[in-house]
């Protein structure tokens, strides 16, 4: 089980090169991102976590490259290229796996993500979560058809028989996905790795 960490660098997770990262990568793994951009730092500070983003990794049949399924502010729920993170991300990456989730369950999760492709990014819920954390009387908004990264991972996991934990009135943060009992750290790719 993954436990709270203060940073990927100080976590003790095995550090790997890009080549080793791809060797260790398995279909359905989760990639946790610890960014250095201002928006990433703000999310990390707010959640008291090194993680600002999480995404689902998959390799289509007969495809030559790994893809992601993720939710970002600029594009909502979308398919991306994993190499954009491995080759060009401005921070550290932690690869994690849910060993109890079988291949058919991973397909179910991926299909659940495909069902919400192009749905918007849930900025309203994120903003109201901040307000609620500062003043408990403020409500948390729950717009329909909008997801942020870790909320998307939770919603996708509901399609399997092994859903991620649902920690409270709002969808989970990347940190809460990371500390789910079913999540196991695999390796870390540091920004300065060769």
Structure commentary:
32% of the residues lie in helices and 20% in strands. With 194 residues, it is an alpha+beta fold. The strands form two sheets. It has a six-stranded antiparallel beta sheet, with helices on both faces. Strand 2 and strand 3 form a beta hairpin. The protein is globular and about 35 Å long.
Number of helices: 7
Element string (H = helix, E = strand): HEHEEEHEHEHEHHE
Helix content: 25-40%
SSE class: alpha+beta
- Mean pLDDT, all residues: 85
Count of strand segments: 8
Shape: globular
Major sheet, described briefly?
6 strands, antiparallel
Order of strands, widest sheet: 4-3-2-1-5-8
Rg, please? 16 Å
Proportion of β residues? 15-25%
* Separation of the first and last Cα atoms: 28 Å
Short note summarizing the structure:
By secondary structure, the chain is of the alpha+beta class.
How do the helices and strands line up, and which of them pair or pack?
Blueprint: H1 18-24, E1 30-34, H2 38-47, E2 53-58, E3 67-72, E4 76-81, H3 83-88, E5 92-97, H4 103-115, E6 120-121, H5 123-134, E7 146-147, H6 149-157, H7 174-178, E8 184-189
Parallel strand pairs: 6-7
Antiparallel strand pairs: 1-2, 1-5, 2-3, 3-4, 5-8
Helix pairs in contact: 4-6
């Amino acid at each position: 089980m993954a436990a709270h960490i203060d940073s990927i660098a100080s976590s003790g997770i095995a550090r790997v090169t890009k080549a080793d990262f791809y060797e260790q990568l398995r279909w359905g793994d989760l990639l946790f991102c610890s960014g250095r951009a201002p928006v990433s730092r703000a999310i990390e500070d707010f959640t008291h976590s090194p993680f600002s983003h999480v995404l689902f990794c998959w390799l289509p049949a007969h495809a030559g490259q790994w893809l992601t399924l993720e939710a970002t502010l600029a594009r909502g729920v979308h398919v991306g290229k994993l190499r954009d993170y491995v080759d060009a991300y401005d921070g550290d990456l932690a690869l994690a796996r849910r060993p109890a989730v079988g291949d058919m369950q991973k397909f179910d999760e991926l299909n659940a993500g495909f069902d919400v492709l192009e749905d918007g990014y849930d900025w309203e819920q994120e903003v109201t979560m901040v307000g609620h954390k500062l003043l408990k009387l403020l409500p948390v908004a729950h717009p329909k058809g909008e997801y942020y990264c870790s909320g998307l991972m939770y919603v996708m996991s509901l399609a399997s028989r092994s859903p991620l934990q649902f920690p409270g009135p709002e969808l989970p943060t990347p940190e809460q996905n990371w500390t789910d009992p079913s999540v196991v750290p695999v390796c870390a790719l540091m920004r300065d790795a060769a």
